[in-house]
Specification:
Strand order of the largest sheet: 2-8-7-6-5-3-4
CATH topology of the largest domain: Aspartate Aminotransferase, domain 2
Distance between the termini: 56 Å
Radius of gyration: 20 Å
Strand content: 5-15%
Order of helices and strands: HEHHEHEHEHEHEEHEHHHEHEEEH
Helix content: 25-40%
Shape: globular
Number of domains: 2
Number of strands: 12
């Protein structure tokens, strides 16, 4: 008899004991465990959110929403994307976790999801929830997906390959054009999670589109999806507004399925997204904040004797634990600095000797860490 599915413990729920240690400090704990933006959204975005109502919104996204996405791709990433090749999703986590199920309906002969061995846990969880094989792909010394290590047998069974750049948790930058070419050569859709693209630090000129590989759509839309969110870019995690764009047939197939499932971004959230995508000023300011916070927290941690490189992108510090004891370092940070951090095992077995810290708290909260150092 087949055993019923029992979900594993949610990773961040396992930090309760660490949080209790951190809360013993005056001023309480400084939670750097989850990448939840804590700064205020731009006023114009909040105005759009408040002023919008109406009937059921289009599941695929309004014409204004898809047009704003298309214009943003051209302005910031230097690629031409037809609004018809864009569709909305309710934030990107539900899309990441649900995609294997939708793709298996499309091709029941395949049962495997490929994803970076050190990465956001929802790639593997989405495979598990769909009854699929979750097969990690090795990463290299700079935390980039090593496509050469993919077993041809796994490629033949693959529903999709996930890539993520800048990467969570380690901040690596994949060659997305090479990923697209690998997918086309192997007949595997490549899904590129690009939610941290506005926080790319290395190799970035004034215009992102001048730097190779910032979006997989630089290689064209055939066989690929670029997945984006306003949660990080515009401090709108609670609004749940994201999108996917790329291969016309695949976008059309997924948007039809999602329409039947009733998955839709609320109308006010779509209006807020249009306002957010049209304003780059608040993103420039947020980039400055995250860059300053990365430098500031890095200095504190190095004062404790920890050694680590700065990320090439994203807003996480990825710190090797002394003697490989990640949980020991997590507890040490809680006791000495009142910080709640995440052990690397949350992001894959290959990451078990590291700790991740998200620099998402406002400067006034990070002042507590500096005062305790």
């Amino acid at each position: 008899m087949t055993e019923p599915f029992r979900p594993p413990p949610y990773p961040y729920d396992r930090l309760d004991a660490v949080r209790e240690l951190a809360e013993r400090h005056h001023g309480s704990a400084v939670d750097l465990s989850v990448g939840t933006p804590c700064d205020e959204p731009a006023p114009a975005v909040l105005d759009a959110l408040r002023s919008s109502a109406g009937p059921y919104p289009a599941s695929i996204g309004s014409a204004a929403f898809r047009g704003a996405v298309s214009e943003w791709f051209a302005r910031r990433l230097g690629v031409v994307v037809d609004p018809g090749d864009v569709a909305a999703c309710v934030g990107t986590k539900e899309f990441v976790a649900g995609l294997p199920h939708w793709l298996r309906l499309r091709d029941p002969s395949r049962d495997t999801v490929l994803y970076p061995a050190v990465s956001y846990p929802s790639y593997a969880m989405g495979a598990l929830l769909a009854g699929c094989r979750a097969v990690p792909v090795a990463v290299d010394g700079e935390w980039r997906t090593d496509l050469s290590t993919i077993d041809p047998t796994d490629a033949e069974r693959a529903l999709c390959l996930w890539v993520n750049t800048p990467g969570n948790p380690a901040g690596g930058l994949d060659d997305l054009v090479a990923a697209a070419e690998w997918g086309r050569a192997n007949g595997v859709p490549v899904c590129s999670d690009e939610c941290y693209v506005e926080f790319t630090w290395e190799g970035e000129p004034a215009v992102l589109g001048q730097a190779p590989g910032r979006t997989i759509l630089e290689a064209g839309g055939e066989g690929v999806l670029a997945v984006h969110s306003l949660s990080k870019r515009s401090n709108l995690a609670g609004v749940r507004a994201g999108w996917y764009a790329g291969d016309r047939e695949l976008v059309g197939y997924l948007s039809e399925l999602r329409k039947h499932a009733g998955l839709m971004v609320p109308g006010p959230a779509q209006a807020a997204a249009v306002a957010a995508l049209g304003d780059q000023g608040h993103v420039t300011e947020q980039r400055r904040r995250y860059r300053d916070r990365l430098d500031r927290l890095a200095a504190v941690l190095r004062g404790l004797g920890l050694r680590f490189p700065m990320p090439a992108g994203g807003f996480y510090l990825w710190v090797p634990a002394p003697n490989g004891d990640a949980w020991g370092l997590v507890e040490h940070l809680a006791v000495t600095l009142g910080i709640v951090a995440s052990p690397g095992e949350f992001y894959g077995d290959a990451a078990a000797d590291h700790v991740r810290l998200a620099v998402v708290q406002p400067d006034s909260v990070l002042d507590l860490v500096a005062d305790r150092a």
